[in-house]
Amino acid sequence: MKSRRRDEVVQFCRENTLLVMTMFSVFLGVVLGFGLRPLNLSQETLQLINFPGEIFMQVLKMMILPLIFSSLISALAQMDAKESGQMGASTVLYYLSTAILATLLGIFLVTVIHPGDPSIKGTEIAEAPSEGNVSPLDTFLDLVRNMFPENIIQATFERMQTTYVAIRPKIASKNGTNIIVKRSIGMTKGMNILGIIVFCTGFGIVISQLGERARIVVDFFVILDAVIMRWVVTLMWFAPLGITCLICGNLLELDDISDIASVLALYVFTVCAGLVLHTIITVPLMYFFITRENPLPIFKGMIQAVVTAFGTASGGATLPMSMQCLEDHCGVDRRISRFVLPLGSTINMDGNALYEAVAVIFIAQLNNVQLSLAEVLTVSITATIASIGLGSVPAGLVSILLILNTVGLPVRDVSMLFTVDWLLDRVRTAVNVLGDAYAASVVQHLLQKKLDKADARHDYKAEIKGEIELLKSAATSRRPSFTMSEASKELFLTQARSEGNSRIGSRIGSRRPSSTNLHLSWRNNPIDPPYTPLPNDENV
């Protein structure tokens, strides 16, 4: 019996080598981080420890832009415009519902547990950096502005954001010099993922309306998507080293928080309890009520992506691994996963919504402020909007300041929360990644039958799906995968007979033909084109 269990464990480790190594890297990073803290390492040593993790994060973030372009366009190009609209509406509605539920759960837990102790206010707390009086209206308008960038190239490295500039009037008033705060809409560093998604969505829908005339463009993006995913799979083998260095470096950079450890421990427990309950109860129940299916297989299939999200603390960097797990282990249609996951990495911030609601009410409890029902509702609505509109801002600083200014709470206590944000950021990122998987599964349940009917109406879409499967098999095999069209096969047989070589004709089924006589079905076959040539411009 013991030998059988040992064989099963060994077999599991062989089949899931990367998963086991990633989970062990998380454990090793925590052990090394706490074990090396008493040594008081120098800044140069800490920099060298963080360096492999820094390179790993840069490599993963490098793949985000080409992955979104190729996967989103290739997925939507295989769908009708009506199906794309239904998929987008279903995804946004589902994400909005889960964000509202997460916010309400966080408010309930922080009210019941009450982690904020006003006596802690006697402890000296550093001043938090201020971002000005952020308006919820400006947050919403920035969200819409970023959806429609004026330059798609600029959107790859900059996004629009409203800032507040203090201007001294040229003519002083009689009562003295007054400082006027004016809004300034400018560009700030950071990839505008939402604008890129909107552009790729429109581009893919237009290609789908052109049908077989745009087949060569679809084939290009399908091949590009396969190349990038193959590259990402290779890069993920460096994840164990990068995750170990990231976690170890973060633990070594922490300051001593012994003075307020008891209060923050209860605060961390409240946030983690909310995130766990949202992950194991709220989202699975919502998934079950919609699909009537067991949610456990989704969780099992996404373990690798969840561990990677916890190690990197970045939903965008985990995006390639999430796509691979969702398609290979959970059986989700790639057209759905390639649309839902990039969109979810931008607007699905259930963990952020819950965290921000708990943080704001926790600060109110520290200041012994009793929030009214209207203020609690304001917190819940603002946290939901801020989690969607400001999800790309690190540490949720601007989101928390926005909510604090909305309900009139001081922003000075925010800096105290940064001492434990390194842990909570990783947990809520893992929750967001798992929530994206459930969202994609729900959308597939709602639209899969319509997608199958659309594939039956369009033969070329079924051919593209077959080519994608061939590319997947080629990615996991050393031998290239070919499909020989009927015209190519006929040409090969004709040449074989004309040369009088009967052995080739008899062994055609068992011998791999020369690649010079074959044409991949996704290429522009000069013998039997799979799509009709483009007409003149005026006819289009």
Summed up, what is this model?
With 540 residues, the chain is mainly alpha-helical.
List the helices and strands and how they pair.
Elements: H1 2-15, H2 17-36, H3 43-62, H4 64-76, H5 81-113, H6 136-147, E1 158-167, E2 180-189, H7 193-210, H8 215-235, H9 239-252, H10 261-291, H11 296-301, H12 303-312, H13 319-328, H14 334-347, H15 350-366, H16 373-389, H17 397-407, H18 414-457, H19 459-475, H20 486-498, H21 502-506
Antiparallel strand pairs: 1-2
Written description of the protein model:
One of its GO terms (cellular component) is plasma membrane. Helix 6 runs parallel beside helix 7 and helix 10 packs parallel to helix 18. This protein has two domains: 21-456, Orthogonal Bundle (Proton glutamate symport protein); 459-517, no CATH class. Mean pLDDT is 74; it is low at 123-132, 391-395, 475-485 and 499-534. The protein has helices spanning 2-15, 17-36, 43-62, 64-76, 81-113, 136-147, 193-210, 215-235, 239-252, 261-291, 296-301, 303-312, 319-328, 334-347, 350-366, 373-389, 397-407, 414-457, 459-475, 486-498, 502-506, and strands spanning 158-167, 180-189. A two-stranded antiparallel ribbon has the order 1-2. The chain is mainly alpha-helical. The longest helix is centred in the last third of the chain and has 44 residues, at 414-457.
